[in-house]
């Protein structure tokens, strides 16, 4: 369900030179704020479950004893880059967002989809946590945010970038899984559909996006609306295994932080004083032995480039109902209804809290082209009270009062990762955690529900589709093995017949 019983701030840690420390509300000063986000945590599930069973606090990446099946801590990866970023700019605040509670699985690669399924809601949680953690007036006083996400963390960071009250100045993507192999395993981020929602560019007030590919990443600057992205194809050492190749993007970027004189990677960052205006669209690392030596393959996009992702929109109809009775929300053409909604007294939406119920359900239909579900959220009342949005029982969105994250108009959940058909949208008003009740005075309005769509969406395979694909592959493999055995047997028999001497030679040899 992706529901977390812990406050969003519990997921944030601040680097102190040794580890990450807890963060309290309104404690982060205006200035440069760098936020790291990890990805899938295979092999960490057993340790996480053991530690969480012993603690009333959220177990995080920096919790002592959290190691994988090989006794390796995630801090072995994230502590060095956190320290490098802090050393590069001692006045900055370096953070890590931990969502290992929902990204930890067993070591089986087929479990990766479980981490992918939790990326969207954790992106919204990250945005909400940052909005709560920074001092009031953070942006007005010159505060700027740099989000850095690796693997599934690239999806978390991208969602957070779209959900922050003030967009980040920079978004750095480290080997976001986008290949066909990731799609077949249900683990493709599909950031090409989210990124165009950002105002990506090289100028003030825009978000600079740099993307580093090491194993399962792809170029983004070739997609509509993403011509301003800077893509870098790195070259992991030839002897690296798949896991090392995937994490090499982190190593590469950390190396660029440690060596700003190379003039690439971190040195491009506008938050580090870099000039991103003249950067090319695509770079390659030609020599694995020379990490920071890049060749520019494509220069800056022409000023006239203005391609955008073509998106069509249509309103969802939310019928009203008599006060005090459960409304039945429907979408034209779906033919399905879900009872139990409060009176719909908002424009194309509902009001929650106060005298109205605190939960609402609506059944709606999607098709092959359904991309996002957009809505406007107004949330007022006790600080920390939250609104959660679910699709088919899986939480996809979270925001907290006062208006934070996507609390301003323009909230959304993705639909390109669900199969076409009927789905249930659920909205819930709670306290700071899913187990707490909201204050009686807290109210929320979800309005302006809109479906957006685009053509030719490539969706992740479902778990069932992946299983059928594996069964088919095994069956084909078995047939191939059997066929090879038959061919080998036939060839051996023919070879024996060819080398056997004629009968008269055998007779003569016996006589001699």
3D structure, described in words:
The protein has 512 residues and is an alpha/beta fold. The chain has 10 helices and 23 strands. The strands form 5 sheets. It has a 10-stranded mixed β-sheet, sandwiched between helices. β8, α7 and β9 (208-213) form a beta-alpha-beta unit. α5 (119-133) packs across α6 (152-163). The chain is globular.
By DSSP, the count of extended strands is 23
The value of Rg in angstroms is 27 Å
The amount of beta strand, in percent, is 15-25%
Main sheet characteristics? 10 strands, mixed
Q: Which residue ranges are poorly predicted, with pLDDT under 50 across at least 5 consecutive positions?
A: 321-345
Mean pLDDT score = 87
Query: Which strand order do you get reading across the main beta sheet?
Result: 2-1-5-3-7-8-9-10-11-12
Q: Could you tell me how far the N terminus lies from the C terminus, measured between alpha carbons in angstroms?
A: 87 Å
Tell me the helix content. Answer: 10-25%
What shape does the CA trace take? globular
Structural class: alpha/beta
Q: Report the total helices.
A: 10
